[in-house]
């Protein structure tokens, strides 16, 4: 059976390109060595900075240190998404970015709601009998 007949028949073993169809990922963007190295260097820097902040006791207030570390963690997540996961508005027609935004909205609503409920449960909790003795 010729290659044309096999393709028309739909029974081609590895396609007309000699079996290289396994490497076809459609229009998905692939990074170059330079972009991977840029991502790696940024990720390393964004890991070293929080370590130095904690070990060097840079801020006297631990809340400020925690806030800076969380902000750097968010930046590192973005670096990973761009340089290693190749997520952008063009990938898969923008659906991956839309799915990410939806996921982030759900996570923020869930976390904010949980914190709000826990705060109000703590603030409005009824006094227990052993606490009532101290009300005088």
Q: In words, what does this structure look like?
A:
Its main location: membrane. The chain has helices at residues 3-9, 33-55, 62-83, 95-123, 129-132. With 136 residues, the chain is mostly helical. It folds into 3 domains: 1-30, no CATH class; 31-86; 95-136. The longest helix is centred in the last third of the chain and has 29 residues, at 95-123. The radius of gyration is 27 Å and the shape is flat.
Give the arrangement of secondary structure elements.
Layout (H helix, E strand, L loop, with lengths): L2 H7 L23 H23 L6 H22 L11 H29 L5 H4 L4
Task: Summarize this structure briefly.
The protein is mainly α. The protein has helices spanning 3-9, 33-55, 62-83, 95-123, 129-132.
């Amino acid at each position: 059976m010729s290659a044309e007949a096999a393709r028309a028949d739909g029974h081609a073993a590895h396609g007309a390109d000699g079996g290289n169809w396994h490497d076809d990922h459609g229009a998905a963007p692939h990074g170059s060595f330079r972009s991977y190295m840029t991502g790696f260097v940024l990720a390393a820097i964004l890991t070293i900075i929080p370590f130095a902040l904690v070990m060097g006791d840079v801020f006297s207030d631990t809340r400020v240190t925690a806030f800076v570390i969380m902000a750097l963690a968010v930046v590192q997540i973005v670096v990973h998404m761009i340089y290693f996961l190749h997520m952008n508005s063009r990938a898969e027609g923008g659906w991956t970015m839309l799915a990410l935004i939806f996921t982030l909205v759900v996570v923020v609503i869930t976390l904010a709601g949980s914190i709000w409920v826990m705060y109000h449960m703590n603030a409005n909790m009824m006094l227990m009998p052993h606490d009532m003795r101290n009300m005088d």
